[in-house]
Amino acid sequence: MIELDDFSYAYPTGSRPALRSLRLAVPAGQLCGVVGPSGAGKSTFAHALAGFIPHALGGETAGRVVVGGRTVADTPLPDLVRDVGLVLQNPFNQISGVKFTVREELAFGLENLGVPQEEMVRRVDAVLAELRIEGLADRSPYQLSGGQQQLVALGSVLVMRPSVLVLDEPTSQLDPVGSGQVFDAVRALHRAGVTIVLVEHKLERLAEIADRVLVLRHGEVALDGPPATVLADPRLADWGVAGTRYTAAARLARERGLWPEDRDLPVTLDAAVAGFRAVTGGVESR
Ligand SMILES: Nc1ncnc2c1ncn2[C@@H]1O[C@H](COP(=O)(O)OP(=O)(O)OP(=O)(O)O)[C@@H](O)[C@H]1O
Ligand SMILES: [Mg+2]
Description:
The protein has 286 residues and is of the alpha/beta class. It folds into 3 domains: 1-78 and 164-169 and 196-232, Rossmann fold (3-Layer(aba) Sandwich); 84-161, no CATH class; 244-286, no CATH class. 38% of the residues lie in helices and 20% in strands. The protein has a 6-stranded mixed sheet, with helices on both faces. A 4-stranded antiparallel sheet has the order 2-1-4-5, covered by helices on one side. It starts with a strand and ends in a 7-residue tail after the last helix.
């Protein structure tokens, strides 16, 4: 579904390439998490998948990005946005600036595609309900909190029903409740078969839902594999990526001899609980 074929990219003003010789494939329906320190190239990667690179941002590319069988560089952006949705890291940049209410904002992309009015209303209502933001429908997109804007930005992409969804830190401005709404929506889309690339710092959440995690570092793939392996890798800390709290707790326990050397460190709550149960012989503390 998504293929990067020795893909490199340098921004017009960049002195060094932001992405270097990426070779990877994300099969249809996979939920691929992306993590890495600040400046690693996560947002650049997201923009390259959605065609903003090279179409909107210019710069120099080498190699290819292929999404849904189409080479991104050879496909006009208006054609790409039908299939590939990108939720930007800064939701403010996603607001059209030409609509007065959230409802109109959500309908904007569909209007541009010429979707009939009735269908438009149906889709917008469905997304408002799915993200539990019905209460924002008549508000101005500019009079929302950062978190509310983030939900609206996600909504404006979801109404397009993309087969590939790229989310760049979609919960960075959200509290735990708002983050939960986003993760619920992502989980539902994953179940519905949408191919998802999710850049996310909340590794505890990512570990629960991702099929696979990529670690980017200096524009290269440093690690690629199942979340349980990648997120427990001890090198993450050296690279400036804090692991999950479950891994941290088990690592401390191991230092004190309370977690066996030969038992993998957990990345989810369930794995942590199972591990601590096993080492305490199932004895619950009072
Ligand atoms: N518009 C731009 N022009 C020039 N260089 C840029 C531009 N955007 C990003 N860069 C550079 O490209 C590299 C990768 O940046 P990118 O924004 O992709 O990192 P990131 O992993 O998303 O970081 P963060 O976690 O802070 O969002 C950095 O060195 C950054 O300074
Ligand atoms: Mg970024």
